[in-house]
Amino acid sequence: MGPDDASHAGPADALVGRERELRRIRAWWDGPGAGALLLSGDPGVGKSAVLDAVADAAAGSGARVLRAAGAEFEADISYAALNQILLPLYDGFERLPPATREALSVALGFGAGPPPERLVVCNASLALLRAVAGDGPVLLIVDDLPWVDRASAAVFGFLARRLSEDAGRVRFLGASRTGVDSFFDGSGLPSYELPPLDAQSAARLVALRFPDLAHPVRHRLLDAAQGNPLALLELPGALRADQRSAREVLPAVLPLGERLQSLFVDRVNSLPAATRTLLLLATLDGTGDLGVLSAAARESDGHADLRDLDPAERDGLVRVPESPRRLVFRHPLIMSAVVEAAPSSARRAAHRALARVRVDQPEQRAWHLGESTLRPDEDVALLLEQTSRRVLERGDSVAAIGALTRAADLSPLDSDRARRLAEAAYVGAEAIGALHSASELLEDARRADPRHGASLRSATAAVQLVLNGDGDLATAHRLLVGAIEQGDHGFDADDPALVDALHFLLLLCNYGANEELWAPFYAAVARLRPAPPPLLLVAARTWGDPAHADAETLRALDEIIDGTAAETDPARVVRVGTAAVYPDRLPAVREAAWRLVRQGREGGAVRRHIGALLHLCLEDWHRGAWAEALELSEEGLTACATSGYTVCTWFFQYTKGLITASRGDSGTAHALADAMTNWAAPRGIREAVHCALHVHALAHIADGEFDAAFGRVSAISPAGAFPPYVAHASWVFFDLVEAAVRTDRRAEALAHVRALGETNVAGLSPRLALLAHGARALVAEDDADAARLFGEALATPGAERAPFALARVRLAQGERLRRSRALSDSKVPLAAALDAFEQLGSAAWAERARKELRAAGRATPSTADGHRTALTAQEREIAELAAAGLTNKQIAERLFISHRTVGTHLYQIYPKLGIASRVALRDALHRMNGDDRHR
Fold first, then answer.
1. How many whole angstroms separate alpha carbon 536 and alpha carbon 526?
2. Residue 317: closest CA among 301, 296, 305, 334
3. Contact call for residues 549 and 583 (beta carbons, < 8 A)
């Protein structure tokens, strides 16, 4: 098979996207019509692969398949292709009359004698095939007809025209490239042009063969290949690993693999030199603008003009439609072939000519100058640096890194080279997760100028590497504080490097959850001139110490959030979302966060993708969209693992832990929390440890282990205190008060409620106001006071947007009413809590509400007693596979869904079966099957 064998994919060697074409050829094979069919198509479109599939199908149906393929080195050997196709029938020559048998043997080289007449050979071949067809159907397949020798082509043409008379016993199927001359005369024969793969099939082929290809790279390849299967399979292999993962900018014209070069470069090399010059200029310009092309041709050394395009038009490589009058390449791969065929000196000359023409397009001019310049040139380097800022503003971080590194290469001064490399390293670490490349760029910057190591960009990139490696938070904090204090920025509040560094220092301070870390941050902020950026100040208060954020700060936050809907800077969107986390303002930034997630899925800034995913997960947790939160958490964990942002892994362990604990899967919740603690504690990331303690506490409360829960929450926020800069204290106060009340620690509960009253936690959001009123109700001595406070809590406007928190307060209200003997009154909040817990899938909490209702005198069948929601067909299949011991990944592969979808289904299945974890699936399904048999 030749280079056209290009549509197979996967271990099963399945043909992708050719179902319609195969049905059409199969109808020809099975039908009573013409005995010949000519298949044509562009190079690499998959003709050989289709012929293979047809041959396999025909052989499987009992037909005898005879094959030949034209070859350039045999094109001058008479009857070479006919020899290929008739050689398997050599033993059948005995069926022919002696004279016919001798003529065919001589023609095919099996015997000696004078060359036979061509018509004799044609008739002998036809007679042999008809004789063999008496034993069963015969299919002749000839690939690459343009390379078939003249004599064989004449015989094949004769056979194709005569086979219609044989009632389908012998069929001829040939294939050739579109528009290529051939000795084979197919005029008048039925033909079918094989089209490129449609967009969906092309995407599926690439996904099957290159599942790890980054989304923007995949889109670029799909666009360049235009459905050509060979290009889809070959282009990725010509890219470097960092290019395939979108961590390195792709070249303007994609390189061709060896097989693609053999198909396209030869055609380009056969053109006149002036034509090749014009095609190179058109390729590197990329617009097809004939005015630009004409001007660049005049600037080039070869003095070409537009008339020199004629040979390329005649050869079908390009066309110039009447409207719009722009040069259009017949296929994007021809552009790649043009670049491949041009020596480096010709490419540089073309770039120089285009730079002279594109004086009004600064980005294009900078790129052309960068490609044409060999020696250090500060003017060109500065143009490239300015271009990097513009493309970074558009969100193209990879292109920005490419421009910065090229600018560094062309920098005459070591200090400028180091600065630009450090900037590239910062963008790589901050935006696209290219941590390994960032490390190499930082090392290059250090070698260029050892004094540059303390620059803000170098320090911020280095801190990223420390946090995502084995370093600790204290080291990272010290590095960044030192760079800020020693920098030559003059504390200019408009210096982007300084503002970025301060936002990163804010993150480190929050991670540390330690008041001592904040002093250098506030000292630096106080020195900013003319004034600190509002977002920086607001985030420090609402994220760093939310319990003490005042009403003015919250108003300022709301004003900042109002401007986020149209915000295009991914970093600012995530920073606004981060400031909104503890005051529960995440719903207001949900659309902006989703925009970043969609961009991240398409290859956008990975760190921003991760940050937006966290914000969506937390908002989903609060609003009860737990299935989506679990799916997004899995996406976040995958993004962290593939990008190297290990410092963010605990984000999604936390959101998964919250949901598993709330659903009663305490084993999984404790395991997730332990993993967070084991990673974060040695590194001094106390915020992650606090989040782990929160998960532990929720799991303990779900299991009724209130003493253990009190110990966990007290480790975050001691009873009676809301320590400054321990942000999580504002989220766990209800857990602490409930655990204290349930373990007869009344003094601690009262002390914490009093401390709560000295904060503005209740003023942060409706959810926190609901929980704050609920906490006061829990410690009320008088039942009437408790009833009033619970009533105030449940009347909080917007409380319904936090269904789990609302259900917990209703459960506490019902428990208090039942214990005070108000049995009838207790049933309403308990029933509402039960309904909410069941809808959320909180099995353990639902059982707690159910027990209280039974104690109040209302019969409520438990899940274990047979009250359950029926499983869907897919849920049942997933449950049975999981019970059989298959992993989520194995189930996903079997059912052709993602492993994240499997996990989401399982977390919906558990509460339906009244269980909390995977280990109980087998028994639960056994009980269900038994119940089904007795119905």
1. 12
2. 334
3. yes
CA separation for the pair 366, 836 (Å, rounded): 61
Query: In angstroms, what is the C-alpha Rg of the chain?
Result: 36
Cα 110–111–112 angle (5° rounding)?
Answer: 140
CA distances from 11 to 15, 49, 208, 624, 897 (A): 11, 15, 10, 42, 18
Per cent of the chain over pLDDT 90 is 52
- 186 and 155 Cβ atoms separated by less than 8 Å: no
Three-class secondary structure assignment of 308-337: HHHHHHHCCCEECCCCCCECEECCHHHHHH
> Quick one: tokens of 775?
């906490």
Instruction: Give per-residue burial for 714-730: e unless 16+ CB within 10 Å, then b.
Output: bebbbbbebeebbbbbb
- Whether omega before 255 lies within 30 degrees of 0, making that bond cis, reads no
Close Cβ partners of 478 (under 8 Å, ≥ 6 residues apart): none
Angle between helices 899-913 and 888-895 (to 10 degrees): 110
Q: Give dist(CA 790, CA 774) in Å, integer.
A: 6
Query: How far is the C-alpha of 720 from the C-alpha of 869, rounded, in Å?
Result: 43
Q: How confident is the model at residue 915 (pLDDT cuts 50, 70, 90)?
A: confident
d(CA 635, CA 621): 16
Report how far residue 573's alpha carbon sits from residue 412's, in angstroms, rounded to the nearest whole number.
37
Q: Are 849 and 817 in contact (CB under 8 A)?
A: no
Q: Which 3-state string (H, E, C) describes 463-528?
A: HHHHHCCCCCHHHHHHHHHHHHHHCCCCCECCCHHHHHHHHHHHHHHHHHCCHHHHHHHHHHHHCC
Q: Which residue has the higher pLDDT, 452 or 789?
A: 789
Rounded to the nearest 10°, the torsion over CA 600, 603, 604, 610 is 40
Examine the pLDDT at 473 and tell me if it is beyond 90. Answer: yes
pLDDT tens digits for range 514-572 = 999 999 999 999 999 999 999 999 999 999 899 999 999 999 999 999 988 888 889 99
Taking residues 898-923, report their average pLDDT. Answer: 76
Q: Note the pLDDT of residue 869.
A: 58
Token pair in block for residue 188 = 């008048």
Q: Among 249, 334, 323, which residue's Cα sits nearest to residue 290?
A: 323
Max CA distance (Å), the chain:
122
Residue 524 C-alpha from the chain's centroid? 38
Q: How far apart are CA 713 and CA 485, in angstroms?
A: 37
For residues 596 and 592, give the distance between their C-alpha atoms in angstroms, rounded to a whole number: 7
Q: Which residues, 6 or more positions from 322, have their beta carbon under 8 angstroms from its beta carbon?
A: none
Look at residues 839, 769, 829 and name the one whose alpha carbon lies nearest to residue 798: 769
DSSP, res 589: G
Residue 1 has what pLDDT? 36
Residue pair 454/627 in contact (Cβ under 8 Å)? The answer is no
- Secondary structure percentages of the chain, helix, strand, coil, to 5: 70, 5, 30
Total residue count of the chain as it appears in this document:
935
Structure tokens at 132: 């063999």
In this structure, what are the phi and psi dihedrals at residue 582, rounded to the nearest 5 degrees?
-70, -30
User: Which tokens go with 895?
Assistant: 């059912």
The SS3 assignment for 566 reads: coil
Evaluate if residue 32 carries a pLDDT over 80. Answer: no
User: Three-state DSSP class for 138?
Assistant: strand
| Strand 14-15 to 8-9 pairing | antiparallel
Question: What are the angstrom distances between the C-alpha of 184 and each of 35, 157, 176, 298, 760?
Answer: 16, 6, 10, 44, 88
H, E, C per residue of 4-53 = CCCCEECCCCEECCCHHHHHHHHHHHHCCCCCEEEEEECCCCCHHHHHHH
